C-alpha cells in the first residue's frame, strides 16, 4: 500500500508539473474511450458466442424444447453470482449510474468494470429478453469513474469521465458516436458545456474507431431504403408516433408492475423459479423474444419478416398474412413481460434493445395494417420510425433515438420522419409520465440530477450537514423567569420548547415576548406553554433539500425546526442553506 501511495504521489506530481488539468482530462477521455470501446466489443462477442453455442443447431422448422430450460438456467447462474460473489445488486445499469451521480459522488464500485459484463452475458446468452447496452454503459461509467478516482480528481471530473465511459460504451456497441454523446446528455443528464462536450466527443469517437478497427464498419442493422420520405404520408408518421407514445406508456407501466410483484417475493429461489418458468414459456411460444431480439429486427428490415416465426409453434402459418400479423401483435404485447420477468427474477440487462424491438414490430404492424387499404407504405421504413418512437418515449430521449436509428441503419435520408415520430411519441408519454423508467425511482426520492443547475445543486446538498444545533432549548414546564435567564445566555431569538423526553412541543419567539420579558411580576405567573407557538412547517432530517425549500417558500419562514419521530434535532435556516448552496455550486461548476 505504501509503495502504491508513493507511485500515486509521483504520478500526481508529474501531472501537476507537466500538464494542466483540462488537458489531462482530455487525455483520460481518450483512454476511457478506448477501454470502454473494447468492453463493448468484448460483451457483444461474448453474447454472440454464447447464443451460437446454445442455439446454433436448432432447426428453423421445428420447435426447440431447450427454450423452456435455458432462461431459468441463465437467471439462476446470474442470481447466484450476484448473491455470493459480487454481493451487490446491479439493478438497471443506467439507474445505477444515476444513483452514483446523485448519492455517491459519482464513485462507482471497481467490480462494475467487469461484473455487469459477466452477468449480462449469462442472462442474455441464455435467453434473457433484455439488452446489453445498459450493462456496458455501467461498465464504461465504472471505467471512467475509477480511472478518475485513481488520479484523485474532484467530483466534477469523476462525473465527467464516468459520462465519457457511458458515452463511449454506447458508441462502441452500436458504432454510433453521436448517439453515445446524446445518450449521456439526455439520459445521464451531463451538462452540455464546452468543457464537457470535447471529452465526451473524444471518448465516443475513440470507442467507435476502436470498434471499426476490430469489428469492421458495417451498420448494426442491414437496411435498404425502399422510399424517401413522402410529405403526403406525414399524417401516417404522426399517428405512428402517437401510437409509439402509448406503447411507451404501456411498456413503462408493465415494467413497474411486473418488477414490483417480483420484489414482493422474499425468496430469491421463488423469483428464479417463477421468472424462469414464465420466461421459458414465453420464449417457447415466441422464440423471437429470445435475447436482445436483433435477429428479428434484421429480418423485418430486410423484408424477411416471415422468418420471425422460425422455431416456433406458428411456423406453419408463415404464409398466412392475417395470422402472421396477429402473432406479431402478440409478440409486441408480450415482449415487455419477457423483459420485466428477466430483470424482476434477477437477470441483468437493459431496456435499449427491448424498446428497439417493440418499436420495430409496432412500425411493421402499423404499416402492414394500413397497407390493407389504398396507401402503399414501406413497412421497413415504418419499422425504423417505430424504433425511434418507442425508444424516445420509454427513455425520454428523442434526439438519442433519432441519431441512433440513423447511425445504426444508415437511414440518414429519413431524418425528418424519424424526428416527427420521436417528437410525437415523447410528447404523448409526457401526458402520462413525468419521468422515464431510468429516472422515476430516483425522482420519487428527490435524488435525481437534472440539467437545471439549481435543482442539481439542491439534490447534491444533504440536509443533515446544515442542521443548526446551537439553539438553547427550554423545558415546557419552565416559567417566564427561567426563560429570561436563558435569553441572557443566547445569541439567537428562537427557543425550541421540549418536554422531558426531548419531544418537540413548539417554539418561543423573542419578538413575541419583548413586551413582557422585563415585567418581573409575570415571571412566576406565566409559563412557556402560554408563550410558545407551533411553527408553520417542520422538517424531517432525511427530506430532500428541494422539498425543504418548498416548505420555506410556502410558509414564508426563515427558520424551521428539524424533527424526527417527534424528537427535536435542531433548526435549519435559509441563510445556512444559501451559504451551503454557494459552496456546492462553486464545487459543482464547470467554470
Task: Summarize the helices and strands and which ones pair or pack.
Elements: H1 2-18, H2 21-55, H3 70-86, H4 93-103, H5 115-125, H6 133-150, H7 155-174, H8 177-186, H9 194-215, H10 234-263, H11 268-285, H12 294-301, H13 321-345, H14 352-370, H15 379-395, H16 398-409, H17 415-430, H18 437-444, H19 453-460, E1 474-475, H20 480-489, E2 494-498, E3 504-509, H21 510-513, H22 528-531, H23 545-555, E4 559-564, E5 567-573, H24 574-588
Parallel strand pairs: 1-2
Antiparallel strand pairs: 2-3, 4-5
Helix pairs in contact: 2-5, 2-6, 2-7, 2-9, 3-5, 3-11, 4-6, 5-6, 6-7, 7-8, 7-9, 8-9, 8-16, 10-13, 10-14, 10-15, 10-17, 11-13, 12-14, 13-14, 14-15, 15-16, 15-17, 16-17, 19-24
Describe this entry's structure for a reader.
The protein is mainly alpha-helical and 591 residues long. 62% of the residues lie in helices and 4% in strands. The protein has helices at 2-18, 21-55, 70-86, 93-103, 115-125, 133-150, 155-174, 177-186, 194-215, 234-263, 268-285, 294-301, 321-345, 352-370, 379-395, 398-409, 415-430, 437-444, 453-460, 480-489, 510-513, 528-531, 545-555, 574-588, and strands at 474-475, 494-498, 504-509, 559-564, 567-573. The strands form two sheets. The protein has a three-stranded mixed β-sheet. A two-stranded antiparallel ribbon has the order 4-5. β2 (494-498) and β3 (504-509) form a beta hairpin. The radius of gyration is 29 Å and the shape is elongated. The relative contact order is 0.10. The model has no long low-confidence stretch (mean pLDDT 87).
Amino acid at each position: 500500500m505504501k509503495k502504491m501511495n508513493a507511485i500515486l504521489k509521483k504520478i500526481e506530481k508529474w501531472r501537476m508539473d507537466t500538464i494542466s488539468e483540462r488537458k489531462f482530462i482530455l487525455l483520460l477521455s481518450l483512454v476511457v474511450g478506448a477501454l470502454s470501446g473494447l468492453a463493448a466489443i468484448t460483451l457483444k462477442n461474448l453474447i454472440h458466442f454464447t447464443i451460437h453455442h446454445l442455439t446454433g443447431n436448432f432447426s428453423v422448422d421445428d420447435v426447440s424444447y431447450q427454450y423452456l430450460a435455458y432462461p431459468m438456467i441463465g437467471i439462476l447462474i446470474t442470481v447466484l453470482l450476484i448473491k455470493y460473489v459480487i454481493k451487490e445488486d446491479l439493478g438497471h445499469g443506467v439507474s445505477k449510474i444515476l444513483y452514483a451521480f446523485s448519492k455517491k459522488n459519482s464513485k462507482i464500485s471497481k467490480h462494475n468494470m467487469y461484473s455487469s459484463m459477466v452477468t449480462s452475458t449469462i442472462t442474455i446468452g441464455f435467453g434473457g429478453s433484455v439488452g446489453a447496452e445498459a450493462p456496458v454503459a455501467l461498465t464504461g461509467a465504472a471505467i471512467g469513474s475509477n480511472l478518475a478516482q485513481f488520479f484523485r480528481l474532484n467530483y466534477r471530473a469523476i462525473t465527467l469521465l464516468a459520462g465519457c465511459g457511458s458515452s463511449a460504451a454506447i458508441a462502441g456497441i452500436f458504432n454510433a458516436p453521436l448517439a453515445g454523446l446524446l445518450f449521456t446528455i439526455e439520459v445521464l443528464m451531463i451538462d452540455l458545456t464546452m468543457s464537457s462536450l470535447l471529452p465526451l466527443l473524444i471518448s465516443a469517437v475513440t470507442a467507435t474507431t476502436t470498434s471499426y478497427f476490430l469489428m469492421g464498419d458495417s451498420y448494426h442493422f442491414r437496411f435498404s431504403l425502399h422510399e424517401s420520405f413522402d410529405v403526403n404520408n406525414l399524417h401516417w408518421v404522426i399517428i405512428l408516433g402517437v401510437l409509439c407514445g402509448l406503447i411507451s406508456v404501456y411498456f413503462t407501466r408493465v415494467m413497474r408492475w411486473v418488477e414490483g410483484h417480483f420484489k414482493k417475493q422474499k425468496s430469491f429461489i421463488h423469483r428464479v423459479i417463477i421468472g424462469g418458468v414464465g420466461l421459458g414459456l414465453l420464449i417457447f411460444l415466441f422464440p423471437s423474444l429470445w435475447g436482445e431480439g436483433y435477429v428479428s429486427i434484421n429480418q423485418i428490415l430486410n423484408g424477411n419478416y416471415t422468418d420471425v416465426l422460425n422455431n416456433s409453434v406458428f411456423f406453419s402459418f408463415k404464409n398466412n398474412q392475417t395470422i402472421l400479423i396477429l402473432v406479431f401483435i402478440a409478440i409486441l404485447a408480450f415482449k415487455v413481460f419477457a423483459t420485466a420477468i428477466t430483470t424482476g427474477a434477477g437477470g441483468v440487462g437493459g431496456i435499449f434493445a427491448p424498446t428497439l424491438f417493440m418499436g420495430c414490430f409496432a412500425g411493421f404492424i402499423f404499416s402492414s395494417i394500413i397497407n390493407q387499404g389504398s396507401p402503399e407504405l414501406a413497412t421497413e421504413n415504418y419499422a425504423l420510425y417505430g424504433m425511434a418512437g418507442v425508444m424516445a418515449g420509454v427513455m425520454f430521449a428523442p434526439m438519442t433515438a433519432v441519431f441512433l436509428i440513423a447511425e445504426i441503419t444508415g437511414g440518414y435520408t429519413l431524418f425528418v420522419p424519424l424526428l416527427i415520430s420521436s417528437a410525437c411519441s415523447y410528447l404523448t408519454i409526457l401526458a402520462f409520465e413525468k419521468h422515464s423508467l431510468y429516472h422515476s425511482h430516483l425522482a420519487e426520492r428527490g435524488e435525481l440530477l437534472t440539467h437545471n443547475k439549481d435543482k442539481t445543486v439542491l439534490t447534491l446538498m444533504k440536509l443533515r450537514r446544515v442542521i443548526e444545533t446551537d439553539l438553547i432549548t427550554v423545558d415546557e414546564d419552565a416559567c417566564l423567569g427561567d426563560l429570561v435567564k436563558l435569553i441572557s445566555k443566547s445569541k439567537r431569538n428562537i427557543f425550541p420548547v421540549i418536554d422531558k423526553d426531548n419531544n418537540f412541543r413548539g417554539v418561543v419567539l423573542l419578538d413575541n415576548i419583548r413586551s413582557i420579558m422585563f415585567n418581573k411580576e409575570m415571571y412566576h405567573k406565566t409559563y412557556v406553554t402560554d408563550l410558545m407557538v407551533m411553527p408553520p412547517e417542520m422538517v424531517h432530517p432525511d427530506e430532500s433539500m428541494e422539498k425543504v425549500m418548498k416548505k420555506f417558500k410556502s410558509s414564508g419562514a426563515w427558520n424551521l425546526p428539524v424533527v424526527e419521530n417527534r424528537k427535536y434535532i435542531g433548526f435549519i435556516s435559509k441563510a445556512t442553506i444559501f451559504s451551503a448552496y454557494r459552496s456546492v455550486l462553486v464545487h459543482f461548476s464547470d467554470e
